[in-house]
Automatic annotation (TrEMBL), chains A, B:
One of its GO terms (molecular function) is DNA binding. The keyword Plastid does not apply. The lineage of its organism: Bacteria, Pseudomonadati, Pseudomonadota, Betaproteobacteria, Burkholderiales. InterPro entries: Aminotransferase_I/II_large (IPR004839), HTH_trans_reg/aminotransferase (IPR051446), PyrdxlP-dep_Trfase (IPR015424), PyrdxlP-dep_Trfase_major (IPR015421), PyrdxlP-dep_Trfase_small (IPR015422), Tscrpt_reg_HTH_GntR (IPR000524), WH-like_DNA-bd_sf (IPR036388), WH_DNA-bd_sf (IPR036390). SMART domains: HTH_GNTR. This is DNA-binding transcriptional MocR family regulator. The keyword Hydrolase does not apply. It comes from Roseateles asaccharophilus.
């Protein structure tokens, strides 16, 4: 493991400094890849990676066939590109998640799949059945950790994957989100550095901001997840105290870290005694099969806190999630007790009852089929209606597409224009503390495909072309 | 308002320094009240107040008819008596709240009233009815703030008290506890000083500890709540950034701050722009009538965050609470979104449905009657079986009794001895960051009065007498 960041990163940082210092100014052309390759004595791949990183940060733009140019300053959301840096994105996130009073008919910016995909009738009867079994005394006696029957059902689901997790290791939380937040708070002190993905889930950025932590952004590949060489270098440089990642069907990219890479990730982190908060709420939504093994499966030292949820697969709004917290389980159980005592009993009891019923696998199969079909339809429409040069991911699970528009487009401007027409989207800068990804956006393929949605995608394409004009 | 703390406090601090510095040693006799009165030129009342404060801190003990002596060091839980001080009680709280593997048949240390007091049949049908009205799309659209119908019902309950609170000002949280924690986090930065009661609710101490805040403990009268003169002096000295109090049926003392004092409290805090986090979860449990007005009713600047809950009055374990957050409502709504998105929909919908049904007042009347009768029975048993010199509060609401044992008794030792016999209690040191109140304990009168409970109180009395021997 090198104490230095990888070469492309150093090259990118050097060029970024020239841009921030004003040596390179908006509109200036960067040296060509071949020139830089020669002058630096490095490979073309290194130069391309560096330029791609700068592009991702919104600092430079590729102009087709004519090279790379320094981008104009990113007006409404200039965030300083320090590294690691205190996080200040909450305000932006809340602004962009709001609808500004517009009625949204095409929720392509939503973080949720359509509620129509869930078995509400079965949930209703589970609620009635679960409530009949409510024993008043249980309510206050079984508090630590949450509903025992549900923790057992979750442990059984781990067992199907070949993982031995006891109900005692599981702490039920109000959705995975509370579990992730409590885990992060447990593991850090204000001012600490924390490894996160770039682009990554905005709620992680908000959590870092609220706790006064510094974000160490790890470059993340759209297909295979966080770059482990970069991570090793960042560990050596910044001594982070925790790492928060999504290893399967990452939000927003949709990438699935291959099994051997998950294993290497855990090995790297455990070697440095850095706990991993593994946000794994999309794992059950692998389109063509059962969930991939999480990184936690490769942990030997109990250092992985694995967070899951029923919010994306079964019962959105019920706020039933969990953390299998490894050696941190006793501390996390206490953190949960102090923060909000326990999860809500009726929802926990109902989901336990539903899982005991054995219908969940059938529901998951039909949900996965629906999500796969919807993704194909949305992806095809984007490729048809968006300008040439647009790149779209093709995740094997979950319900997000990550769209990179050709240089010169601005997803923040697009967001505001689209919202006026009732179309939402999630602009790229939501997903980074450094404010990059201006030419990127996340689209939600969790909505049933309808002519109205098709028309909305076509209209988005028109709005993007208007931008270029 | 004086910049100095009150005279008795200065005298107590001075004597405490002599004790901590070793000038006064365990067993040493303190100057008599008359001597001190003469040497300091102050009133006997001032000396008594100072000695009482030192006794409450566990530093001195009164020996009947022979004066005050320096107490032996408080072995297992010596916490330094700095002022204000970082908080480190969580470990103690969790130890003492646990049952150490013993089966508890007399839960006199519990924080909850007996679940048997709640209308579970009605709650079950409300759950079924509420779930039938679940509209899938609502689950993700009405998120900010929580279930709209429930917020309206809560606003209507404020209106009965003559308070105009809009549903928009209300943020639903997972019990009051999450709301209190999120409020505190919103209003403070690590290292800030926060005013709390002494003795006070241990969850507040835990929250301060988790957030790295310093506790400024305000002496609190068992009958009328926090001492406002002391508070004014502490504000001048420590510039606290928030205040967290229970103004009605305070935990653990049971005191009810009179209306004019609540008014003066708000005036004092708003004059210094210090937000008040008003934990008011027992207000509905006034034994002989409707809830007293909260301090928030006297606020003119929106600086009071008023937290309530259905956990103590209707549905323990369902985790449905709220904060009417005044001018902090938008910020708190965002904090809740970032921390755990929303409360659990089924519980919120069911309680909204139940409240619309109009049976709640009748249930509350019968609950209040039961709590009043149970308190009378428990109080009489304590006075009968505990040693002479025992003092017991007589709260007008809630379900806690605060018991002061005669000098020489130790509630921590008693706690461990009683737990072995299946009797729990809440020892005094749970309720202070300074580790005082060793001779005090909190008993729960929320349990139906039974011969078994009566026998448990009698046995507690025996254990106390054994201690003295």
């Amino acid at each position: 493991m090198s104490a230095e960041p990888p070469r492309y990163r150093r090259l990118a940082d050097e060029l970024a400094q020239l841009i921030h210092g004003g040596t390179l100014r908006p509109g200036d052309r960067l040296p060509s890849v071949r020139q830089t390759q020669a002058s630096r004595g490095c490979s073309a791949a290194t130069v391309f990676q560096a330029y791609h990183l700068l592009e991702a940060r919104g600092l430079i733009r590729a102009a087709e066939r004519s090279g790379y140019f320094v981008a104009p300053p990113a007006a409404p959301v200039t965030l300083p590109a320090r590294d690691p840096q205190p996080v200040a994105v909450s305000e932006l996130v809340f602004q962009l998640l709001g609808t500004g009073g517009h009625e949204v008919h095409a929720p392509l910016g939503s973080a949720f799949p359509s509620p129509e995909l869930f078995p509400f009738d079965k949930l209703r009867s589970a609620l009635a059945a679960g409530s009949r079994r409510l024993v008043p005394a249980e309510l206050t006696q079984q508090l630590p950790g949450g509903h025992e029957g549900l923790r057992r059902q979750i442990a059984l689901r781990y067992l199907r994957l070949g993982m031995s997790i006891t109900p005692d290791e599981i702490v039920l939380t109000d959705g995975a989100l509370e579990g992730l937040n409590l885990s992060l708070q447990l593991l850090t002190r204000p001012g600490d550095a924390v490894l996160i993905e770039s682009p990554g889930f905005y709620a992680a950025l908000q959590a870092l901001e609220r706790l006064g932590l510094r974000a160490v952004e790890v470059p993340t590949d759209p297909a295979t997840g966080a770059d482990l060489d970069a991570m090793a270098a960042l560990i050596a440089r910044h001594a982070p105290t925790a790492c928060w990642l999504m290893t399967s069907f990452q939000n927003p990219l949709g990438g699935l870290m291959p099994a051997d890479k998950k294993c290497a990730l855990v090995e790297l982190l455990e070697r440095h005694a850095i706990p991993l908060i593994e946000d794994d709420v999309y794992a059950e939504l692998q389109h063509d099969g059962p969930p991939p093994l999480p990184a936690k499966a490769y942990s030997t030292q109990g250092g992985v806190l694995h967070a899951g949820s029923f919010a994306k697969t079964l019962a959105p709004g019920w706020r039933v999630g969990w953390v299998a917290a490894g050696r941190f389980a006793p501390a996390l159980r206490r953190a949960k007790l102090s923060q909000s005592l326990s999860g809500s009993w009726p929802a926990q009891a109902a989901i336990a009852h539903y899982l005991e019923g054995g219908d969940h696998e059938r529901h998951l199969r039909s949900l996965r089929r629906a999500l796969a079909a919807q993704q194909r339809a949305l992806r095809a429409a984007v490729l048809q209606h968006f300008p040439a040069g647009t790149r779209v991911t093709q995740p094997q699970g979950g319900y997000f597409l990550w769209v990179e528009l050709p240089a010169g487009h601005d997803s923040l401007v697009l967001h505001h224009a689209a919202l006026k027409e009732g179309i939402s989207l999630a602009p790229g800068p939501l997903f980074s503390a450094e404010g990059g990804f201006r030419h990127c956006l996340r689209l939600n393929s969790g909505q049933p495909w309808t002519p109205a949605l098709a028309a909305a995608v076509e209209r988005l394409g028109e709005l993007i072309r208007l931008q270029a004009g």
